[in-house]
Write a structure and sequence with these properties.
This protein is mainly α. It folds into two domains: 98 residues, no CATH class; 86 residues, no CATH class. 70% of the residues lie in helices and 4% in strands. The protein is built from eight helices and four strands; from the N terminus they run βαββααααβααα. A two-stranded antiparallel sheet has the order 1-4. Strands 2-3 form a two-stranded antiparallel sheet. Helix 3 packs across helix 5. The protein is globular and about 55 Å long. The termini are far apart.
Length: 196
């Protein structure tokens, strides 16, 4: 793999190696490398989060770090692991993006972090942490991708595309917040009934 440094300037395809750009375009069974890598990462994450002690511990740390610490989970180590995994996947995605489109600059994919968060929230991942699944996040990403890509085909103006996508994201966040607030409200209501 060839590493290209642009010194803060834009790097174009002519400055990248042929093998660097070829990898994301390799097709297998009619699907390119990014699809297979995404499928592999999703399956590996699902197995890691549901079948390993460390993965289940991450849910505990996300839900309640204090309780997780009392249960014997090393919270700082778990958080460090999350940052390492997240950084590795972000780096892989950055490479695939740059190699596929043949251009790299400092503001590439600016704003996509909000799209990723929105896809996760739509898929049922809690903003507060401790709740969610890989399958839900994948379905949320697919749903958001369909919405965003269908609007230009339907000849919706760019302004309304952003408005519709924003409304979908806002609706998902509101529904997520209400779903998280319900259990606490039910417990409080039951406690008040018991006092009366």
């Amino acid at each position: 793999m060839i590493v290209v440094s642009g010194g803060g300037d834009q790097v174009n395809a002519s400055e990248m190696g042929a093998s660097f750009q070829a990898f994301p375009k390799i097709a297998f069974l009619g699907l390119t490398t990014p699809f297979w890598l995404a499928a592999f990462v999703a399956v590996a994450a699902q197995i890691f989060l549901t079948r390993t002690r460390t993965g289940r511990g991450l849910y505990a740390v996300g839900g309640n770090p204090v309780a997780a610490r009392y249960c014997g989970i090393r919270v700082q180590r778990a958080e460090g692991l999350v940052y390492v995994i997240s950084g590795a996947i972000a780096g892989l995605c950055g490479y695939l993006w740059v190699a596929r489109y043949g251009v790299a600059y400092s503001e590439i994919a600016l704003g996509y972090e909000l799209t990723v968060i929105a896809a996760c929230v739509i898929g049922g991942v809690s903003i507060g942490g401790g709740v969610g699944s890989v399958a839900g996040a994948v379905l949320g990403a697919l749903f958001l991708g369909v919405v965003v890509n269908a609007l230009p085909v339907m000849q919706v103006s760019p302004f309304w595309q952003m408005a519709i996508a924003g409304t979908v994201i806002l609706g998902a966040v509101v529904l997520n917040a209400r779903a998280e607030a319900r259990p606490g409200k039910l417990i409080l209501a039951e406690a008040r009934r018991g006092r009366g």
